[in-house]
Amino acid sequence: RRKNESGGLNNGKKSKGRGIYVLYKNREVYYIGLSTSSLRGRLRQHAIKDRHKDKWDEFSFYQIGKTKYVKDIESLMLRVFHPLGNKISGKFHKKYNLAKMLKNDCNFRK
Questions:
Q1: Which strands make up the sheet holding 28-35, listed edge to edge?
Q2: Rounded CA gap, 65 and 63, in Å?
Q3: For residues 56 and 31, is the Cβ–Cβ distance under 8 A?
């Protein structure tokens, strides 16, 4: 997970750089972000232009085949890891009322 490495599955297809990336500082999750087109561009921006400059030393990338799932997966990861570099905790689409779904699921199992 050095600055020039990436991981994930692409099923033999040409990568378009869409997916979730994680920036690390001293092997701890510092920032979680998403890319819908250019991973290289997003990492370059974080490395030389924005508030994350010099605050991370490694990254990992998880390619997501369907763009429509990228934001939801990022939101889930933000809520699990609570990275210091992220200002928001991630939002889900309103159609996903997880509390209601869990309540219904729990009532169903009784």
A1: 28-35, 19-25, 58-63
A2: 6
A3: yes
Whether the CB-CB separation of 23 and 56 falls below 8 Å is answered with yes
109 exposure class (CB count in 10 Å sphere: 0-12, 13-18, 19+): exposed
CA distances 17 to 54, 93, 109, Å, are: 23, 23, 41
3-state secondary structure of 25: strand
CB burial of 62-87 (b: ≥16 within 10 Å; e: otherwise) equals ebbeeeeebbebbbebbeebebebbe
What predicted TM-score, i.e. pTM, was given to this entire model? Answer: 0.71
* Position 3 confidence tier, pLDDT thresholds 50, 70, 90: very low
